[in-house]
Design a protein that fits this description.
The structure is a single chain. The chain contains 13 helices and no strands. It has 273 residues and is mostly helical. It folds into two domains: 1-78 and 97-153, Serine Threonine Protein Phosphatase 5, Tetratricopeptide repeat (Alpha Horseshoe), CATH 1.25.40; 182-272, Serine Threonine Protein Phosphatase 5, Tetratricopeptide repeat. Helix 9 (182-196) packs antiparallel against helix 10 and helix 10 (200-212) runs antiparallel to helix 11 (216-229).
């Protein structure tokens, strides 16, 4: 029973509801000692510390959570590459890959919620410092760079409980929506192009961002660069996105030139607008 985080959370909720705040913190602290990789208990304790302005404590518990989750990922990677037999190796390959994928999602979620805290409390400069660590973390996925403008404006607690299956952002669009700094947001997106420049979903998010802030020149440059790197089939969503933008915002000469390019590349008219 001690390893069921939901029971610890229920006990914390009861103590918190009866205004026994010291007991509530004690319950979460003990629960995390037994379940050090629990997102639920970490986020709840982080929320309490943030309300109490104990920001250093928030940094510490997120650092500890990330370290524990990273260790799990490293161990998982070693066991997959090892030829030694184990209980894990007896699992079906699909099950192993799904388990690893879920662990990586959990790890990235922890980074995202942590960065939201940093942005909320310490601002854009502090967020950039955290992002420097993210850039050199091999377990970080492209989803941690890109963002949903909607979820970027939702608090970490709301997003974790109301949208548990979505992959929100705490990076580029957080920098823009939270700090209003288009240049910093663009640099974050551009940094993400180094590892994720061939991931169509990421490139689309970057292009959408540039279009949304009316950065026409960089949007054009990104589109031209990306379609050269990606194959025609993979780049189709980019062509569709850029075509919609051209039809809505381009002048007649630009539109006609773009239509000519489309006809050359998609003679069967497979691009939809």
């Amino acid at each position: 029973m001690t390893y069921h985080t939901e029971i610890w959370f229920m006990a914390y909720t009861w103590a918190n509801n009866v205004a026994d705040y010291e007991e509530a913190v004690s319950i979460l602290t003990l629960g995390l000692k037994i379940n050090p990789s629990s997102h639920l208990l970490t986020f709840a304790l982080a929320e309490i510390f943030e309300i109490q302005d104990k920001y250093e404590d928030v940094h510490k518990i997120f650092t500890r959570l990330l370290s524990n989750l990273r260790s799990h990922l490293e161990e998982s990677g070693k066991s997959r590459s090892s030829s030694q037999t184990s209980l894990r190796s007896n699992k079906p390959q699909d099950a192993v890959e799904l388990e690893d994928s879920e662990r990586q999602k959990e790890y990235n979620l922890a980074w995202i919620v942590y960065m939201r805290f940093v942005m909320r409390v310490e601002g854009l400069k502090a967020l950039q410092s955290v992002l420097h660590r993210v850039r050199f973390d091999r377990w970080v996925t492209w989803g941690t760079y890109e963002a949903s403008g909607q979820l970027a404006q939702v608090s970490s607690w709301e997003s974790d409980h109301l949208f548990p299956n979505r992959h929100p952002s705490a990076t580029a669009l957080m920098a823009y929506h939270g700090g209003g700094d288009k240049e910093v947001a663009s640099r974050i997106f551009e940094d993400g192009m180094i590892p994720f420049g061939r991931v169509i979903e990421y490139v689309l998010q970057y292009l959408d961002f540039l279009i949304s802030v009316n950065d026409k020149n960089n949007a054009q440059a990104l589109f031209e660069r990306a379609v050269q790197v990606l194959g025609l089939k993979q780049a189709r969503p980019l062509w569709e996105c850029w075509s919609k933008y051209q039809y809505q915002c381009g002048d007649i000469e630009t539109i006609l030139e773009h239509v000519k390019r489309l006809e050359e590349r998609f003679p069967s008219g497979i691009v939809s607008f």
